[in-house]
Amino acid sequence: MTSLASLSAETAIVGVGQTPFTRGTDLTTLGLHLEAAHEAIADAGLEPADIDGVMPNELAGTVAEDFILELGLPNLAFSSTIRTGGASFVSAIQSAALAVAAGIATNVLLVAGRRGYSAQRVSKTSEGAIPPHPVMRQIDEFERPFGNTVAAQWFAQAARRHMHEYGTTSEDFGHIAVAVRGHANLNPRALMHEKTMTLEQHQASPFISDPLRLFDCSLETDGATAIVITSAERARDARKPGLPILGVGEGHGDPPTSITQKRDLTRIEGLERAAARAYAMAGLGPDAIDCAQIYDGFTWIVLASLEACGFCGPGEGGGFVRDGRIALGGALPVNTSGGLLSEGHCSGANLVSEAVRQLRREVEPARQVADCERVLVTGEGDFHEGAALILGAPE
Amino acid sequence: MTSLASLSAETAIVGVGQTPFTRGTDLTTLGLHLEAAHEAIADAGLEPADIDGVMPNELAGTVAEDFILELGLPNLAFSSTIRTGGASFVSAIQSAALAVAAGIATNVLLVAGRRGYSAQRVSKTSEGAIPPHPVMRQIDEFERPFGNTVAAQWFAQAARRHMHEYGTTSEDFGHIAVAVRGHANLNPRALMHEKTMTLEQHQASPFISDPLRLFDCSLETDGATAIVITSAERARDARKPGLPILGVGEGHGDPPTSITQKRDLTRIEGLERAAARAYAMAGLGPDAIDCAQIYDGFTWIVLASLEACGFCGPGEGGGFVRDGRIALGGALPVNTSGGLLSEGHCSGANLVSEAVRQLRREVEPARQVADCERVLVTGEGDFHEGAALILGAPE
């Protein structure tokens, strides 16, 4: 029997590219993708024609043929698309690693990002966002008519339930927002680089959907991120050291319902399963993780994800994030770039590029996690779906 | 270095399911998919809860969560979607095989099919069919305004060019239609089971788009097909013998343009590349194939696919299909179920189920290919994209 572990460290990330995160752009979504893709390919020391696998991102509406046409890819042998919302980019790494490990493709390009400010503003409406998903059908039929319309409302209910069950407070969410903002203040790429935030300011920020305040919500930005995955063997000769994919996993909730119909609103079951699979592949547990890049569409998602990934027990997230534990210098620095809350919202892909830069020692010195050897990255989609990646230091 | 060959015979198809093909249905598209899925899972001797990977078909608009919700899949660890039109189902087999071979998933369910008669009639319009594809953008902008609207028109231009370049005739296309119809006449599942066709009838059938006649076009039917893929090792203990996936490959044309802008209208470049990859993985060539299930959206596609798969040289397809060579009893029986032309159009998935049944010796005796040990199945999408599968007899 083949074991999950056989995929561990067989493949590596060798290139990253990222557009600036802005509020407003003259580029199309595909234009943003191409800018990030060119940068990632060059970062890997490759030419576009070396790319023979592409995983486009569904949320952006691009397809493999866009990249064949625009980049010039004469030899594409692998393409597929993951359809799990904010978990898609990390799940796509699993598929890309499979294709590379088996020799189906040599260099796989993954791209995500959207015009989250100029076109697809999640604060405005979710209508038609993920058309065929049963979750959206449930929302469209039973919830939208009563005004339960946008993501902030949905996650507010999960946050409130967590508060009710476990005594979690708005200040706990605030600790996450403040820690992540502090990281953004050290990151010139971050949209919120210049804007500091105190816990008092978080607490004074208006409710978007009680109990979620303005500063509990991620940014709406335009931008894209790309990475290139190749084999661990080829990565040794790459322009920059490759980062081995030690573990990766995908998980889904069952049943996949809208958030109001979940059996337990306080949990992200898909991420629990994904993290368990990634740990099993890597042969590691939460203790081995030096730094975590957690999908942070809302602060509550970070809190629930820390629980789902076993950094603390169910309901203990509120206590875990206090006392600077998740800030740089703490026991588990989280979202060291500023994440989706304060760097930019790139469908989660910028969490992966930050993991790469931390492991390469390419970030600003004040932002570098000391002795950073293993980074966990998570994705979360549609309330239930999860994905987890454990990336290692160069071999 | 991992070689392509390492994936050969590591995985197997262990279950197939198929709804009847009809003109009209009371079921939704998802309902058709579930009927086929239940049959495939039972055919594999499994319960729905044993399925931990799902690959839905984009053309049908279903997503993995539909199957989690409707079948009850508590443990899904792998899902992805291929977006290459009629090549998607065979390409999806590649991704499923990768996931199973690496131990990411144990049993992967693949489903395709649509309400091709009751809802998505390709003879009516292609508008919005594959929205984000650059090919469709090109058609929408430059060709649709001039009336170049439906698939029959597009492929008519390819067929006409083949005739111009190589002296191929409408009768050559007719030999394909007649051979495949003859197979349907032996297959009670085929929509055209009762309707015979002579070459004279083919030649007398009206032009849909010159030179393609009515009988050069595939059927518009409602229906779905599903398969289950597991490891070769587990397949040995399955309810029925597993069919090893000896080779599988995906290929794309470059550049991916609409058919009128292709560099060479007479070739399906993506399929040439896909077939070469599948042969390389299997360590076999065209000579080793006992029977071929060729994507037959139009008769011309069969002719060009036989060339792309190396059964004859470029331009030699017209000569190849004469003299009964592709009929049962000939050197290379093609589309022994009646295919999309005469059994039903199920986004190509029924070509895979027919390959399984031939190798299992489950077809009617008159339709059984003698000594059938290896079957080639192809997919074709969007003029350029191709996929090829080589399935072997039970080990």
| Main sheet: strand order of chain A | 3-2-4-7-1-8-11-10-9
State the end-to-end CA separation of chain A: 27 Å
Low-confidence stretches of chain A: none
Per CATH, the architecture of chain A is 3-Layer(aba) Sandwich
What is the average of the pLDDT values of chain A?
94
Q: H/E order of the elements of chain A? A: EHEHEHEHHHHEEEHEHEHHHHEE
**How would you characterize the largest beta sheet of chain A?**
9 strands, mixed
Helix-strand category of chain A = alpha/beta
Q: What Rg of chain A do the Cα atoms give?
A: 19 Å
Number of strands of chain A: 11
In the residues of chain A, how many domains can be counted?
A: 1
* Helical residues, percent of chain A: 25-40%
Strand residue percentage of chain A:
15-25%
CATH topology of chain A: Peroxisomal Thiolase, Chain A, domain 1
Helical region count of chain A? 13
Looking at the structure, what is the overall shape of chain A?
globular
The first-level CATH class of chain A is given as Alpha Beta
Characteristic key phrases:
homodimer; 395 residues; alpha/beta; Peroxisomal Thiolase, Chain A, domain 1; nine-stranded mixed β-sheet; two-stranded antiparallel sheet; 11 strands; globular
